[in-house]
Q: What sequence folds into this?
């Protein structure tokens, strides 16, 4: 299985995105960068939209979004049917979000976590796998809510 991930950031997350993009490439991941490509002020929903669209189209299974806090990206990405975005500031929640909730978008805040911590969060999130079982029942319930509303 080819390791592929789509990523994006706003101006606040640009430098951390660039750092993590190199980490991913060094780990053998194919990375598609949806921008932004500099530190000029921009709006995070634009990039959450681009990354979410790549995932819901089936082109990518996983994505990563970075803004100042990670919160705006997470809220924006979670507006899309089929996106399960989580904002994480430490590795434990990142791992449980994959194991229990099968998250497909990792969000982080560049003003919250530094490079080394962000790297640990990302690596642990990527290594964790969905456990299924009773957790899948809950994901099915979430899917029903998405379809209903």
A:
């Amino acid at each position: 299985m080819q390791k592929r991930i789509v990523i994006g950031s706003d101006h606040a997350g640009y430098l951390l995105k660039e750092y993590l993009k190199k980490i991913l490439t060094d780990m053998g991941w194919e990375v598609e960068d949806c921008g932004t490509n500099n530190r000029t002020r921009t709006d995070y929903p634009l990039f959450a939209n681009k990354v979410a669209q790549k995932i819901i189209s089936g082109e990518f299974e996983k994505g990563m979004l970075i803004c100042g806090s990670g919160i705006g990206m997470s809220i924006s990405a979670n507006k899309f049917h089929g996106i399960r975005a989580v904002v994480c500031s430490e590795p434990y929640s990142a791992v449980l979000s994959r194991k229990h909730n099968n998250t497909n978008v990792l969000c982080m805040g560049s003003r919250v976590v530094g490079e080394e911590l962000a790297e640990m969060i990302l690596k642990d999130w990527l290594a964790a796998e969905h456990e299924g079982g009773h957790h899948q029942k809950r994901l099915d319930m979430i899917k029903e809510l998405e379809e209903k509303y």
Remarks:
- Helices lie at 14-26, 44-56, 71-77, 91-101, 115-127, 134-148.
- The chain is about 50% helix and 15% strand.
